[in-house]
Design brief:
- The chain is built from six helices and seven strands; from the N terminus they run ββαααβαββαββα.
- The chain is α/β, with parallel strands linked by helices.
- Strands 1-3-2-4-7-5-6 form a seven-stranded mixed β-sheet, sandwiched between helices.
- The termini are far apart.
Length: about 270
């Protein structure tokens, strides 16, 4: 997959839907020329992908979209691993995860090991993958604003039950579902709708162990028509010890996400 245009995909929903499901970390694919710049051997790379990939979140979002018909949400799905670039990081010094080598282009692993050689020039990857992704996501948001007059970005993630060493703020609770919020872009009603939709999994938490949500920089802190929240699903809700998914878990989570989409589409939040 060397064609940058294949690195992500915008999947259309209902023409008037304001909802954009964003799935940035579900893929494992790494283009061959990018793989050459990663120092891990194949076995270690597979282990790191197991740790860092939000497995099956694309499937959860797809099933939720089907359940939400006729108010089908739009979906923006990253088709490359976040080990290529992480589209949700700041590409500059604003990104706090640079402190552990996990800015827009990772140079260290989740356990602090070397991922790319010291001195690697990461700018080519930013230009080739990060920048086109950011432009396309901005255009997708602009499209929903033009069509619906508003947009709600629901960022779909998962996270492990046990803290990984790279986590800067992992000391707090690890609830079954974490709802990430933004002071400007997440109104209380939207936050409450998300908590209600996922209440059946044993509880939700706000901004722990991960906080915030994704909004394209053109709109961030500027346009209140752009609402956003992050849904972080603890992986033991739907993955077994061997990493295999539970059909019942995936089904229940997609149903909850569809419930949230329905609430948003009805403009209740």
């Amino acid at each position: 997959m060397n064609d940058t245009s294949a690195a992500f995909r915008l999947l259309p929903g209902a023409p008037d839907s304001p909802v954009l499901l964003h799935v940035p970390h579900s893929a494992r694919a790494i283009p061959a020329d990018v793989r050459e710049g990663i120092v891990l051997d194949d076995a270690a790379l597979e282990t790191e992908l197991d740790r860092i990939t939000d497995a099956y979140t694309a499937e959860i979002a797809a099933a939720a979209a089907l359940r939400a018909a006729p108010g089908t949400p739009w979906r923006f799905v990253n088709r490359l691993s976040r080990l290529v670039v992480d589209p949700e990081r700041f590409p500059d010094e604003r990104e706090e995860m640079r402190a552990v080598g996990m800015g827009a282009v990772y140079t260290r692993t989740t356990h602090g090991e070397e991922l790319r050689r010291p001195g690697t020039d990461t700018e080519p990857l930013v230009r080739r993958y990060f920048d086109p992704y950011a432009r396309a996501m901005t255009a997708a948001v602009a499209g929903r604003l033009a069509a619906a007059g508003r947009v709600v970005i629901i960022d779909v993630h998962s996270y492990p039950a046990r803290r990984l060493p790279y986590e800067l703020h992992g000391d707090g609770p690890r609830p079954p579902v974490c709802i990430g919020t933004d002071a400007f872009h997440t109104p209380a009603a939207l936050r409450d709708a998300a908590c209600a939709a996922f209440a059946g999994f044993g509880g939700t938490g706000l901004d722990t162990p991960f906080a915030g949500t994704y909004v394209p920089l053109r709109y961030h802190g500027r346009d209140p028509r752009v609402r956003a929240l992050m849904v972080e699903i603890r992986r033991d809700l739907y993955l077994g010890d061997g990493g295999q998914p539970s059909a019942d878990g995936l089904d229940a989570l997609s149903e909850a996400l569809a419930e949230l989409v329905a609430a948003v589409s009805a403009d209740r939040p």
